[in-house]
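Researcher: Can you fold this with protoporphyrin IX containing FE in place?
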Amino acid sequence: MTKRSRIRLANGVVSAGIVVFFIMHASIGSIVGLVPFQSGLAWAVWIGVACAAIHVALCVATSIQQLTDTVRPPSINKKRHLALKWATGVFLLVCAAVHVVVVRTAGAGDMISSVTGVIVIVALAVALAAHICVGSKSLLKDLNVDRSFRPAVRGAACTFAALFVLAALVGFGLR
Ligand code: HEM
Ligand code: HEM
């Protein structure tokens, strides 16, 4: 296995891990928004954040590899797709940073008690789904999984996002 494919495989494994981790975090977080309770597990989210930081570092490496590949230079389409992956990733990062500030200032139970709070959760849910959808093709490729699973990955990401938005709206309505 070449160094290049080792890095891609590592990124695929880390990416799949953080997808599952943050979908689970958002699912538990959506319940906290509806029925406020103290899980005492907020610290555990930072393990996921550390894995996301490793993911970003690996993405820098895979992006450099793609852009400097002289044997199979990237097409315009591939470069555009890579730019879209960076744009959705940075959008997700910004939404997550705002989310942490809201959780730390307003408190987890009150994060959707204002319209602004609901907008932050909606933006976060959209950003997570958009980034997973845009990355779904390379995720399956890096993990050597048949690309026919792409609609299933995208469908699941969008369904979860819709449920997170619904939970935030219901939680806001109950206040
Ligand atoms: C719709 C999606 C999400 C919902 C409903 C949600 C909800 C929550 C809630 C309720 C907490 C507080 C947990 C507690 O105090 O026990 C929390 C904390 C946190 N969330 Fe989320 N979350 C979502 C998505 C995300 C995403 C995508 C990220 C990062 C990429 C993230 C990063 C964090 C972090 C770092 C904390 C810990 C903040 C602290 O230490 O005070 N969340 N989230
Ligand atoms: C909860 C956080 C995140 C999740 C769940 C996530 C998920 C994913 C997934 C599933 C892929 C496709 C995997 C692959 O190419 O093997 C991917 C690729 C990518 N992500 Fe993320 N990501 C997150 C955070 C970020 C952040 C914060 C950034 C940038 C600031 C980012 C930038 C990228 C880039 C550039 C790629 C494409 C890498 C390539 O094609 O070589 N991601 N991400």
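Model: Folded with protoporphyrin IX containing FE in place. Residues 3-174 form one domain.
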